[in-house]
Structures are given as C-alpha cells and as structure tokens.
Amino acid sequence: MNQVHAHNVLNMLLAEEATFTMASLKQAVEAEYGEDVRFHTCSQQDLTFDALMAFLLDRRKVVKDGDIITANRDRMCSH
Fold first, then answer.
1. Domains in the chain, start-ordered, CATH in brackets?
2. Are the C-beta atoms of residues 70 and 77 closer than 8 Å to each other?
3. Strand, helix or coil at 77?
4. pTM as predicted
5. Angle at Cα 13 formed by Cα 17 and Cα 51, nearest 5°?
6. What Cα–Cα distance (Å) separates residue 68 from each residue in 1, 39, 77?
C-alpha cells in the first residue's frame, strides 16, 4: 500500500491549471498514486481519499464552491 502525505494532494490542487471536482481529483490522485493509496497528515494516519477530503474540508484547507474544489492557501501549513 502506498502512503502519501496530504500535502501532495494539496499541491496537486495548487499546481494544476485544470479545475477539479471531487470526482476528477479522486481520479487524478488514483492515477498518480494507485487505487489503494492511503494518506497521512501531521495528526492523522491511514486515511482513504474520502476520509482525507473530509478532514481537509473540515479544517478548511480545501474549500468547495458548488462542485469545484480548491486548496485554501491561507489555511495550509508550510512545513
């Protein structure tokens, strides 16, 4: 199983010129890291994509505007 830090997903949102929905972001993440990828943050471990997104939305590190999801630079840590 592939373990990836949540910052990688946030960086995908920041680096891509494409606009992401939750579904298209999940497709991009799975294409990059595989379907069995798990994520970790500074405080959480072994998160699925859905659990990671719930965590990031709850902490406002990502925001949704309709179906569009974007990274919230003001809420991202810089380590």
1. 3-75 (1.10.10)
2. no
3. coil
4. 0.88
5. 150
6. 29, 21, 22
Tens of pLDDT along the chain (79 residues) come to: 689 999 999 989 988 677 899 999 999 999 999 999 999 998 899 999 999 999 999 999 999 999 999 998 777 666 5
Which distant-in-sequence residues (6+ apart) come within 8 Å of 41 by Cβ?
Answer: 5, 6, 47, 52, 55
Burial of 66 (0-12, 13-18, 19+ CB in 10 A): exposed
**Which residues, other chains included, contact 6 with Cβ-Cβ below 8 Å and sequence gap of 6+?**
39, 40, 41, 47, 52, 55, 56, 61
Give the tokens for residue 48. Answer: 């699925």
